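Mods, move this if it's the wrong board.
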Amino acid sequence: MEKGKLHQYFDSNIQPILNMAIGVLFMTIGYLLGHMS
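Not the wrong board. Structure tokens:
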């Protein structure tokens, strides 16, 4: 596999995972902040 294709593959597969992880992180922080008060 060429380097360009590999990079494209990682971009298209890791980006959604990163977005999901960031979303979960923010939801967790919001949940904790909401339950601390």
